[in-house]
Specification:
It comes from Rhodococcus wratislaviensis (Tsukamurella wratislaviensis). InterPro entries: Flavodoxin/NO_synth (IPR008254), Flavodoxin_CS (IPR001226), Flavoprotein-like_sf (IPR029039). GO terms for molecular function: electron transfer activity; FMN binding. The chain has about 170 residues and is an alpha/beta fold. The protein has a single domain, classed as Rossmann fold, CATH 3.40.50. Helix content is about 35%, strand content about 20%. Strands 1, 2, 3, 4, 5 and 6 form a six-stranded parallel sheet that branches. Helix 1 runs parallel beside helix 6 and helix 3 packs parallel to helix 5. The chain is globular and about 45 Å long. It starts with a strand and ends with a helix.
């Protein structure tokens, strides 16, 4: 099985989750992990599974204005986060909107604040909807991985992401 993991990350949390998922999936096959800024170069038909994830901003996927907000947060003198190198480039929303109709197997994930999804929203919901609209079959429920109030990945979330990757790999 070959898998492509595409992610968008502002402060590194979603990247860490994507890398952990990839480690889990790698137990049964080849995995390539790329930031969304490099995803246009990929031939999606070459993969058996597409895993797509991004941070939750304002109840859904990021957009240009929320990426600028993340940049402003990272630049504050008292900030405890560092902006990822390509954080202000095109995001998952724009990349998915640029794809032609397709087919294949896919699954979505997100990172979001550690609070009820009703309050935070879930980017994975929108990602999954766009993937289905493009023609992909979703092979599992989307998953959220949690960050704390300081925008740092909660303890054990990377471990949980790796375990989720193993589960995805076993069901392929």
């Amino acid at each position: 099985m070959s898998t492509l993991v595409v992610y968008e990350s502002m402060f590194g949390n979603t990247r860490h989750v994507a890398e952990a998922i990839a480690r889990g999936v790698a137990t049964t096959g080849a995995v390539k992990t790329v930031p969304v800024s490099q995803a246009r170069e990929e031939d999606l038909s070459a993969y058996d599974l597409l895993i797509v994830g991004g941070p939750t901003h304002v109840h859904g996927m990021s957009r240009e204005s929320t990426r600028r907000g993340a940049e402003a947060t990272a630049r504050k003198p008292d900030s405890t986060v560092t902006l990822e190198p390509d954080a202000t480039s095109e995001g998952i929303r724009e990349w998915l909107s640029s794809l032609p109709p397709s087919h294949g197997r896919a699954v979505a994930f997100d990172t979001r604040a550690d609070a009820p999804a009703l309050l935070t929203g879930r980017a994975s919901k929108g990602i999954g909807k766009k993937l289905r609209h493009l023609g992909f079959d979703l092979v599992a429920e989307s998953e959220s991985f949690l960050v704390d109030k300081e925008s740092h990945l909660e303890d054990d979330e990377a471990t949980r992401a790796e375990q989720w990757g193993r589960v995805l790999a076993q069901h392929q």
